[in-house]
Structure formats: structure tokens, C-alpha cells
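User: Could you go from structure to sequence for me? I need the amino acid at each position, not a summary. C-alpha cells:
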């Protein structure tokens, strides 16, 4: 059983999403004893933007398909996902491998694995909040993974730029949620 652990934050040790993915992976390693962890840091080692030539290189796709559980850190940058994460998704959304079009429209082919995503946002975008319509991280990642046959699970730390107290409280709550998700 393999966990693919992906970080994308440019904030190094000050990153909330990195703190959350680390917690998730540590707990999953305990609850699913014997897991092998493959680590990919897309901020330190970004994948180039897609070109036609790069479709020939299936290494990123293969690594994803070999994983039973995928843990992804996704900070909100300018209302959406980091471009590094988009470049990664562009390598795994491959017709005939992770999705196909059938008589009834698109069909996801990558089901049967768990994807857990740790979201970190400076402001507050949760349902019912005034800025909810500007949230394109959880919405995009839900649509993208649904398209390939996966229902992603989320742990959210938000309001991180509002005050140090709210940051501490929000990260603390999200760390608690990682325990539940990884149990
Ligand atoms: C380039 C950049 C763009 C950002 N854009 C937004 C934004 O649109 N909305 C928001 O609420 N926070 C925004 N933030 C704040 C981050 O979402 C917040 O700092 C979050 O904690 C980042 O995740 P991390 O702690 O894992 O690095 C931005 C931060 C950076 C560095």
C-alpha cells in the first residue's frame, strides 16, 4: 500500500497546508501499518507546464496510479489552486487512463483510491460566508477529481491571515480533523 504525499505551498516551514499534510501522512502511516510513502514537493521541484511532447512522459501519471492514498496540500493562491498543482493535475487527467468518454458522457477510471486534500486559505470562504462565491480551490479540486472517478475528502484551515488567534484556532481545529480522517 502506497501513500503519495504532495505539497505545493511556497511557504516552507510556515505553511499551514504542509503542517496538515504532514499530520495526515503521519497518522495514516500508523493507522494503515506498513504504508510506503512517496513524497513530491511541487514548490521545490515544479513540473513544467504541459506541452504536447510531455504527454509521452507518463512518470507523474504512473506515480499517481500506483498510490492507494493521495494526500495533497493545497493553499489558495489568487482564489484558485497553485499553478504547480494545476501542472501536476494536467499530467494525471489523461484520456483512456484516468477518464474516458462513453455513451453516457465522461466516465472516471481512477476510482478505488483515496484522495485527502488539506486546504489553507488566508480569508474565509466557507459556505454562507460573503466570499463563498470566490472559492475556486475546493470547487475545482472536487470537479477535477470527480471527473476522474474520485470523491476527494477535505480538511480546511481558513481565516489564516485575519489574526494570529484565528490562525492558531483554525489550524488547531484542522489538525484535529486530520486525526479523524486518518483514523
Ligand atoms: C501568492 C499568494 C496568493 C494568495 N491568494 C489568496 C487568496 O486569493 N485568498 C486568500 O484567502 N488567501 C490568499 N493567500 C493567502 C494564503 O492562502 C494563506 O497564506 C495560506 O495559509 C497559504 O497556505 P500555506 O500556509 O500552506 O502556505 C495567498 C497567498 C499567496 C502567497
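Assistant: Here is the amino acid at each position, in order:
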Amino acid at each position: 500500500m502506497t501513500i503519495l504525499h504532495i505539497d505545493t505551498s511556497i511557504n516552507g516551514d510556515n505553511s499551514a497546508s504542509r503542517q496538515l499534510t504532514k499530520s495526515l501522512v503521519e497518522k495514516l502511516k500508523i493507522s494503515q501499518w506498513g504504508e510506503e510513502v512517496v513524497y513530491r514537493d511541487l514548490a521545490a521541484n515544479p513540473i513544467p507546464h504541459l506541452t504536447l511532447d510531455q504527454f509521452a512522459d507518463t512518470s507523474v501519471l504512473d506515480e499517481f496510479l500506483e498510490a492507494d492514498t493521495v494526500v495533497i496540500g493545497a493553499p489558495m493562491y489568487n482564489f484558485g489552486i497553485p499553478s504547480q498543482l494545476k501542472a501536476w493535475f494536467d499530467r494525471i487527467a489523461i484520456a483512456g487512463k484516468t477518464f474516458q468518454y462513453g455513451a453516457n458522457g465522461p466516465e472516471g477510471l481512477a476510482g478505488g483510491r483515496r484522495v485527502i486534500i488539506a486546504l489553507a486559505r488566508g480569508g474565509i470562504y466557507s459556505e454562507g460566508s460573503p466570499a463563498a462565491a470566490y472559492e475556486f480551490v475546493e470547487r475545482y479540486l472536487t470537479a477535477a477529481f470527480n471527473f476522474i472517478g474520485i470523491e476527494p475528502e477535505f480538511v480546511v484551515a481558513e481565516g489564516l491571515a485575519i489574526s494570529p488567534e484565528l490562525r492558531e484556532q483554525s489550524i488547531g481545529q484542522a489538525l484535529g480533523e486530520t486525526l479523524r480522517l486518518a483514523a
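One structural detail worth keeping in mind: The pocket of flavin mononucleotide is lined by residues 9, 11, 15-18, 75-79, 120-123, 160-161 (CB under 6 Å).
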